[in-house]
Structures are given as C-alpha cells and as structure tokens.
Amino acid sequence: MNLLLLNVLLALAWAALMGQFDLSNLIFGFVLGYFALWLTARHIGPNYFRKVPLALLFLGFYLRELVLANLRVARMILSRDLKRLLRPAIVAVPLDLHNRSAVVFLANMLTLTPGTLSVDVSNDLRTLFLHTLALESPEITRREIKEGYERRIKELFES
C-alpha cells in the first residue's frame, strides 16, 4: 500500500477515534501516523520518511511563491503604466528532470502560479516552454525556475 495513503488513513482513523474531523485532529493524526510508520521503518524502507519533509518544504516554498506572484500580478494590473510593465514572452527552459511525473508536476505548479503558463514540453522532456506576462530576461526566468522549482521538485521525485 502507498505509504502516503496509509498515513492519511491513519490520520482519518485518529480523527474518528477522537470524534472530531477538524483540521487540528487531522494534522495531529497525520503527524502521529507519520511517527508510527517511522517506528516501523525497517519493515517499510526509509524513502517515505525522506520525502514527507521534502514535500512539506516544497509546500512552504510554493505557498510563498504563490503569494509573491499574486502580489506582482496585482501590482502590474493595478498600475497606470500597464503597457510598460506588460512584457509577455515565451521562454524555453532546459530541464534536468528525468522523471515524467516530475516534469508534469513542474509544469502544473508553474501554470498554477499567476503570471506564468506552461505552454508545451518537448517530446524528449528536456525543454519546457513557458509563457510569462512580464519578462525581465530569459536568463533570470530560467535561473528562477531551475534554482527554485526544478531543484526542489528533483529532490522530491528523484531522491
């Protein structure tokens, strides 16, 4: 059974035992289930226990990026000088991801971020074509994606 699913089921079981399905009980149940699974790690394998903290770190990073992107787009839209700020472009971003799911995850995360849209991925999964509303420079955009999103997703999917 998938360990994440098992951990979620343990969280639901905890909330059922407590008789309250609120967020605090679900989070506590998830943490409790995580430690219960950790105690049995020699039977399960250590990979899951490396990925949960990485996923939580990625979630924090993504939420921060989401808020900042919303603020940038809102400032741009509300500006009197929209024509100067609006510099749409398509940027080819070379990828170092070796997992199809990781490439799809990256493309979806960028599409969900205001101001960017994943347009296409090359057939060999080595290049992501990204539309951006306000291009500073292609190099800066590539660096932000590779050092921010791609590095974290690579750790999450390929570790």
Can you characterise this structure?
The protein is mainly alpha-helical and 159 residues long. The chain folds into two domains: 3-44; 51-158, no CATH class. 67% of the residues lie in helices and 11% in strands. The chain has seven helices and three strands; from the N terminus they run αααααβαββα. The chain has helices at 3-18, 23-39, 41-44, 47-78, 82-85, 100-112, 138-158; strands at 89-94, 116-121, 127-132. A three-stranded antiparallel β-sheet has the order 1-3-2, covered by helices on one side. β2 (116-121) and β3 form a beta hairpin. α1 (3-18) crosses α2 and α4 runs antiparallel to α7 (138-158). The longest helix has 32 residues, at 47-78. The radius of gyration is 20 Å and the shape is flat. The two termini are 20 Å apart. Its main location: membrane. Keywords: Cell membrane, Membrane, Transmembrane, Transmembrane helix. One of its GO terms (cellular component) is plasma membrane.
Residue ranges: pLDDT <50 for 5 or more in a row? none
**Morphology:** flat
Q: Domains counted in the coordinates: how many?
A: 2
Strand percent estimate: 5-15%
How far the N terminus sits from the C terminus, by CA atoms, comes to 20 Å
Short description:
The protein has 159 residues and is mainly α. The protein folds into two domains: 3-44; 51-158, no CATH class.
Topology:
Elements: H1 3-18, H2 23-39, H3 41-44, H4 47-78, H5 82-85, E1 89-94, H6 100-112, E2 116-121, E3 127-132, H7 138-158
Antiparallel strand pairs: 1-3, 2-3
Helix pairs in contact: 1-2, 4-7, 6-7
